[in-house]
Amino acid sequence: MDGIHDLGGRQGFGAVRRDTDERLFHSRWEERAFACVELLLGKGRFDIDEFRHAIERLEPVEYLTAGYYGRWLAAIELLLREAGEEPGRSEALSARQRRPGSRREVDRAPRFSVGDRVRARHLVRSGHCRLPAYVRGRRGEVVEVHPAYVYPDTSAARLGDHPQYVYSVLFDGRELWGDEAERGTSVSVDLFEPYLEDGGADPATPETARR
Amino acid sequence: MAALSRDDAEDHAAAPEVRVEALERLLVERGLIDPRRIDGIVERYATDVGPLAGARVVARAWVDEAFRDRLLADGTAAVQELGLDGVQMERLVVKANSDEVHHVVCCTLCSCYPWAMLGLPPAWYKSFEYRSRVVREPRRVLRELGLELPDEIEVRVWDSTAELRYLVLPQRPTAAAGLAEEELVGWVTRDAMIGVERDLREPAEGGGAR
Lengths: 211, 210
Known about the structure:
Chain A is α+β, with helices and mostly antiparallel strands and 211 residues long. Chain A has seven helices and six strands, in the order H-H-H-H-H-E-E-E-H-E-H-E-E. Chain B has a two-stranded parallel ribbon. A two-stranded parallel ribbon of chain B has the order 2-3.
């Protein structure tokens, strides 16, 4: 979805500051919220994809102001509220145990290989999707082919695992940011197979990918 | 069917302390979590899981060429040789810095991070500033974090958008030549394994993985 969470390349944010306070949690409620979420996900009550999608669906203002664990808390509240509104869902939640992990075997070969020129599709979806907006429609090169994983787009909507191969696709800085790109920079993004199409020939193959 | 939620858990005007208490009560009542496990989870991340794991991996790779090769080929399998595996790490991908290329890790969509290797991420890694800017102007962001990279060194940013988790293998400092693996562990910093630090220095007395 085109949510506020999709921050890659957004402008206007200020300098990155190292923390003077490196504590993992700044209050007891943050610890408790963290532990509750870990236990719920660990038990397979919710999928990580449902949880991430719930964070994405928070009101933008809340997303920006609630803080990291504040977002976790609000997302779990949202999921529980929705579960309560859906007939039979509370019971299903208590019984639910998702298969552990997200790696899955599939009986087909990956569509793309290392070295292939690919284009990130211009997917516009209101649901959960792990294709960041800043690479939509952009061309890159497959630098690694990974095993198949649960497809977040269907998993977040509780429509099944539908595992897909994942590819590390390297995009040259200029392909993403044009003339404003910093020299000699590239970004690799891990993309599920349905996010990709053939890229065709392109003279602007990142030099960095050839190293 | 009774609703799962309660008014007090929904009221975002309420203080987070109150909301978390309501949440916990609800989850326990519904049998969705075991309250006895809460403290254990917090304890585990506060004390057991941290960058020392990653530092051990790096130090081993510095002294053992064959291990380094295995680590770069299949990070998950290689770190298991050191008895390390577990949370948030179905597939660990290790990227080795070289004289020509510098790697840096981020997650623009949320805050994915190799917990099993580095513990929970620092606040700046989760910040909107880092997430939005490091893919677009990595050199500038690295400079803000204290790392000035010459133009000749390529910067490659790894955006963790799926379930792969990235760890940067820093170069072995020349000043650390001849040191044993156990001593080298102390030279490795968390920030170098994220990729926002590059040239490692001798640790201060008693320094562990920093």
